[in-house]
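Lecture 7, part B: from sequences to assemblies.

Below are the input chains for today's worked example.
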Amino acid sequence: MEFKRHLVTAALPYANGPVHIGHLAGCYLPADIYVRYLRAQKRDVKFVCGSDEHGVPITIRAMKEGITPQDVVDKYNAIIRDSFADMGISFDIYSRTSNKTHHETAQAFFRKLYDNGVFEERESEQYYDAEKNTFLADRYIIGTCPVCSNENAYGDQCEKCGSTLSPEQLINPRSALSSAPLVKKKTKHWYFPLDKYEPWLKEWISEGKKDQWKPNVYGQCKSWLDSGLQPRAMTRDSNWGVPVPIEGADGKVLYVWFDAPIGYISATKELTTQWADYWCQEDTKLVHFIGKDNIVFHCIIFPSMLKAHGGFVLPDNVPANEFLNIEGQKVSTSRNWAVWVDEYLKDFPGQQDVLRYVLCANAPESKDNDFTWKDFQDRTNNELVSVFGNFVNRAFVLMHKLCGGRVPALHTDVMDDADRALIAEISNTKNSIEQCLENYRFRDGLFEVIDLARKANKYMQDKEPWIVAKAVAAEPEKQKLIDNCLHLCLQLTANLAILANPFLPHTAQKMCYMMKVVDRMLEWENAGRTDLLKVSYPLRAPELLFRKVEDAEVAAQVEKLHNNLKKATTPVMDNNTTPQQEAPATEAENPQYQPQKPEITIDDFMKIDLRVATIVKAQKVEKADKLLQLELDLGYETRTVLSGIAMHFKPEDIVGKQVTVVANLAPRKMRGIESKGMILMAQNADGGLVFAAPVVPADNGGEVR
RNA sequence: CGCGAGAUAGAGCAGCGGUAGCUCGUCGGGCUCAUAACCCGAAGGUCACAGGUUCGAUCCCUGUUCUCGCUACCA
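Predicted structure of the full complex, as C-alpha cells:
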C-alpha cells in the first residue's frame, strides 16, 4: 500500500527518573532518525511522545520523598523533556499523561469499550495496607519465601532462589510501605477479554506480519499467542491515575498499560486538529518504536484495544530493539548503573552527535549489545573523527590552499573513470541508505554514510591533488585535475551533509554553515546531485566537526559509573533520607584512594592463579617508553611477560628479584611480543612502584593464596 | 519448567546449502593535504557443542550448553 501519512510513536518514558542512553538506543534515537529521514523526503509525518506519569511506583516514590505524585512527575518530565530536546530528538509534540486532554481521551476510550460491553467485571480479594490506605501490588508485599526461606521475598518472585510466587504463598506477608498488618479486602475490576481477540490477532500477526516484523518481535508475539491469552485487568485500586469513568468505581484508576498507549492518541490530539487523519485513515502508516520489554503491550494488548474500539489504524510495524548493557552489566536504575543523558550532556557539551553516532552504530537491533566507554572512544576517534570529520576537513583545507577558497569548476574534458565512479557512488549510497531506513536497519544505514566518506578519502588519496599542485607551475593545465578532484570532493561533502542529516543533525547544520548553504539543501531529493555547490562560490574556513575523545575522559566516565554504583549500594537507603539529601555527599570520598572495586566471591578469586617467579632476564622493548620484557622462571616453565615499569626500574637492577605473577591471565600481544601473564606491583600515592612479592625467598612456581 | 531471540576473527556486525566477509583494533610498509591523520598490505576464525539430512552445512533437522527476554510500570 502507498501510505499518505506516517505516524511515528516512541515509547512513553516513565516519569520517575531521568532517561539513560539505553532508552535512547532502544527507541528514541532510531525513531528520530526514521522521522528525520521521512521529513527530509517531505513526507507527511507526525512524531509523538510524552511522559507516562501514572502508576504505583510514582506514588511510592512520592510517599518516600514526602512530596506529591504531581511533584515527582513535574520534576522528571522536565528533565526528560530537556534531555530529548538537547539530544535533538525531534518530537512534534512531547506531551504527558497527567494532562487534561489525555484524561479525557483515555476515559472516553474506556467508556466506549464499557458501553459496548467489552469488559468483564470480576471481584477478587487483594491485600490492603490499612495504614497507607492502599491496595498493594504484588511487588509491594514482602514475606518469607516458601521455597528457600528468604525473609525478603517479593509477592511475585523470590530474588534469592528465583521462584515465581504469588502473594498468597508468602509466609508472614507484610507491606513494603508500612509496618501495618495486612488485611484482605474485596475489590472489583474490569477485565479486557484478550482471549476473545486471540483468533483475530493470530490472523493479523501470523499471516500478515511474519516476514515484515523483526524476528524477535514476531517470535515474541507468536509465543504469547501460542500459549493462549488470558483476560487482563484494565483497572487498579489507586488514587493516582486516570479515574475509571463509570459509576461505582471510586478509588479506581485505569491500568497504566491501558492508559499509556492511548497517550499516543492524546498527544496527537494536542498536536493537531487533524489528528483523526493520522489515527483513523487506512492510508496512515503507524509505527511504534519501543524496547523489547514492551512488545506484548504494543503488539497484542494495544492493537486488541484499538480493534475493540473500532475506527483506528493498527500498527504497520513495531521495530523493537533489544537492550543495551553498560560496561558488561545490565542497566539498573535502582543500582544506579546507567549513563544518564542529562549528565552526558553536561560532561560532553556540544557533542550530541557523537553519542548519537555511537549509539546508532552499536544499537541493539538484533540482540543485546554492550556500551563501553572504550568503544565510545574507539568509534568516535577512529570512525567519526578519522573518516568522516577528517575527510570534510581535508577537502576544505585543500580547497582553500589549492583553489583560492572557492568551489572550483568541473572540467568535463579531463574527467576519468575514478571521477565517474565517485559520482555513481553517491547515488548508490543514497539508494542503500533508503533501503536500510525503510526497513529499520539504522546501524547499516549509518555505516553507509561513513563508508561513503571512506571511499571519498580513498579517491582523494588516489588523486593526490597536493602532489599535482607541485607540477602546476610547469604545466598549468594540470590545475584542471586539481579542480575536478576538489569540485567532486566538495559536492560529495554537500551530499554527506544530506545523507548524515537524519543521523547527525547537528553536524549537518554545521556543514551547511561551512558551505554557506541554506537548510533546504538538506532535502533528501538533493542527494545524488553534483551541483549543490555553485562553481566559484566562496566557502568558509573549515571548522572541525568533531574532536577526539581523550583517554582521561574515558577513565573519568568509567570511574564515575563505579562511584555511582557504590553510592547506590551503600546501605544508607533509609526511609528517612530523601535522594535529594544524599546527592551532595558524592564528593566526600577520600580523594587519595582509588574507589574499591565491586565485591567478588571467593570463587571469582580462586579463578586467579598467582605464582611466585624469579626474573631471570629483563630488557627494554624497542619503541616503547614504558615496557620491559621480562623472562620469568616459574619453576615448571620460563615465560615472557611484558610489564609497564620501564620508567621506574632499570632492567639490570631487577634481574634476580622475586615477583608474584598472575599465571593464568589471557596472553596479550604488545608491540608484537606476546605477554603471558602480569606481575603484581603496589602503587604509592606519589606514583612510585614496589614489587608485591614474598618477603623472604620462596620456591618458584609456588601458588600464592 | 515451558516459550521466544541470540551465540561467526581481540571488539562490533554481515552471510543463511557450494572454497568464510565487512568495519574497528593489532602488526608491517607507504605517503604528507588533513584532527599524529590518510593510503597499501599482512596476520588473525575447527562459524557455541554433539549428532543427523545432503555429493556438500556456518546456513536445514534433533539434542545440549551459555546469554537475554517472556514476571515485576527499568527501552
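Note for the exam: The domain at 386-526 of chain A is CATH 1.10.730.10 (Isoleucyl-tRNA Synthetase; Domain 1). Keep this in mind when comparing with the next example.
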